[in-house]
Structures are given as C-alpha cells and as structure tokens.
Amino acid sequence: MTTPLHIAVIGAGIAGMSVAILLSRHGHRVTVFERRQPSVPQGAGLLLQPVGLDALRALGLLASIESQGTRIDRICRVDTASATAFRVVYPSGLHDHAVGIRRPALYRSLWNALTNACTDVRSGVCVHDIATSDGATWLTLDDGGKSGPYDVIVVSDGVHSRLRLRVTPSVEVARREQGALSVDVLLPAACDPGQLLQIHHGHEEYIGVLPTGVDERGKHRATLFINKSQSQVEALERGDFDAWRLALASKYPELHNSLDGLTGFDALQHWSFAHVRMQTWHTKHLVCIGDAAHAFDPQLGMGANMALADAITLAAALRLTGAPQVPIALAAYQAARESQLRTYETASRTLSTLADSAGAFGAAANRLASGFASKLPFVKRRIVHAVCGYAGLEMTQWQRTVDMFSTFRGGPRRTLAIDPTSV
C-alpha cells in the first residue's frame, strides 16, 4: 500500500459508518465526525435487499444482521379497490431473499464495527464548513476550531446536508408534502412473517407491513407504515386517537390485533419525504455519498441499500490510492455508481408522480402497475431485478468489488449474480 490517506467522514449514518469501517481496515487514517452524541436511533424497519446484503457480506456483518432481522422471501402488493394482487418472489442465487430489520439493530452493528476499526470517532462535533487553502483541504468546526488537512473528505451527513454545496451548487432538493407514519407493532396474526405486505386502498391510501424480527419474548415484530402528509398528521393529532385506530382496524382487519396496543399518537413517528439529485458527486478531494448525494421515495425501499453500495464502491476506489491519485479515484467512483443511481432516481420520481396524481389517471396507472403489465414475463423480470437492487448495476464489476473485501477478511469467494431469466 502507498502512504495512507488522511480521510474525514462527515456523518455517521449507514453510508458514513460503512465507508469508514472499510477504509480503516485497509490502513487509511480515518476521522469520523458525527454531530450527535452516540445513541441508538429510533426508527422504522427497513428492508435490506440482495444488493445491500452483498455489501454487508463485504463488511463482514451479514451473519449478524440476518440473525437480528427476519428473512423476507416475497413482496405482496394488494389493491383493494381493483381486487388485484402482484407478488415478487426473490429468485435463486446467493441472496434468494431480503432481510427486514429494525433500524436501531443495523445502526448498533455498524457502530460496533466502526469503533473497533476506527480509533478517531468524534461524536458531538459539528462540521461548520469545508475550506481549501494552498492546495490543502480543512474542516472548520462549530466551536471555531479547525481539523485537517485531509486528502479526502466524504460528505455523508444526510438528506438535509449543507456541506454538499461545497461539492456543487447544482443540487436539486424537492421536498414533498407526502410522508408516512410508522410504528413498531406485533406482527399482525393474519400476516406472513416471510412477506412484506403492501395494501393500497384506492389510489391515495397505502399501508405497509414489514416484518422485522423476533423480540425477547419470542414474538414476531413488524413496522407498520401508513402514508400521511404533514397536514393530515396535524389534523389527526387534533382528533380522537381511539376513533382513528378503530376506523383503521375496521378498514384493514388484518391489522386488528396489532393496533390494540397503541394508546396515542405519540407512539407513531412521522417521516417526511424529499428527493435529492446532484449532477456530480465529487470534486478533486470531496465526495458525497448516501442521502446527502441522492434521496429516493421511501416506497422504493432503496435508501439504505444504495448507501451501502455507495460505501463499498467508494472504499474500493480509494483502497490502494495515494494522495496524487485521489481525483482519479473519485472520478472512477462516480463512473461506477452513475448508471445504478440514475436508474433509481428516475424510478423514484416516477413513483412520486404517480402517487401525487389525483383522480382517474393516478388510479388507472396504479391498477396497470399492479395488474396486467406486471404479469408480462419480461416486465416481471425487470421488476424483480430492480427490487433486488441490481438495476443499472454492472454485475461483473459489482461481484469483483464485493469479493475483494470478502477475501480480504478471509471469507469465501461466492457467486453473487442472480439470473433474472430464472424468474
């Protein structure tokens, strides 16, 4: 290896922790800045698709994550208004399933790996700005101090990042009125623990039930998602909780036993949605990854998966890089991520447009997506490939990247590719 790079990672989310773990293991000097004090975040469940499981294997965390979550073999989308159903069954391959897991469990596993790999993790430290002088790149901190110089600065401070403007001022941020309520509940008795269930009641209402694992009492848990805008949530909170809960249970009898334990709106979290798109994700010494660089509609279920893919791709680009080659490595990173991320950006915007479309057009488009079109073999193959997280990805290069980190840790070389024609 050449002289180790001095790398700053701003933000200890999924992308930031993952890239810091890998680069630290390969001998680079990594400093992580996280503005919050260490804590286990609250959070809804998330679905780790095969592409995310590949990345976790590269991180050496796959077995731990699978033991804490639950195996998801299929996704079922039901439209109650048109009585149509569409199912995605994961095809044969290394990961013939996804994993549903609570966000805190994933964070804990990444945090433990980070503190084992990286000795310089600075919690409760907020980075105010990034400055370059005399060819050196520094961080200025909120307390007036400075840190640096750094060979590479990784901006991974989330969807509301201010620092990404130091990479490019051309950032599209579209905040949506639409959002979702989420709550951790017992898995409804009528729901299969191996299936993500999505229920669409007409055009405008959506319920998701994601199994997330087994609790200490041996009970199956799930995250319940209910799409609601900010104004709808505010109106709900002014009303009667029990009346709302009973109305919801009446409309969705599958949820009845899970809703019984809820006592008030304070048990639910509201998530707002935003799209983020950048034309370029890097300069000579700065690079944005994760939600700071791209944020998608949560109904795609790709945020955590793309953050993990960003992390191992960037770590691969910088693994054996010396300081003079950093600009080339960051350009190679963008080239490797471009096709996949642009594919999901387009899918995210299309999904949001359909979700926001009122009246007959939106309803017809949703029925078409759930019905006839989705049952055509070539359409279904593409849907399954996209659900797995592989759309737009050059599979040979992806396999090489995952294998490189897996063999570095002494793991076996295994075939990743899923043949979409087998669906």
Automatic annotation (TrEMBL):
Protein name: FAD-dependent oxidoreductase
Pfam families: FAD_binding_3
Key words, A-Z: Membrane, Monooxygenase, Oxidoreductase, Transmembrane, Transmembrane helix
Superkingdom as given in the UniProt entry: Bacteria
Keyword Zinc recorded: no
InterPro entries in the cross-refs: FAD-bd (IPR002938), FAD-dep_Monooxygenase_BioMet (IPR050493), FAD/NAD-bd_sf (IPR036188)
Coiled coil: none
Residue intervals of the FAD-binding domain: 7-321
Membrane-crossing segments per the record: 6-23
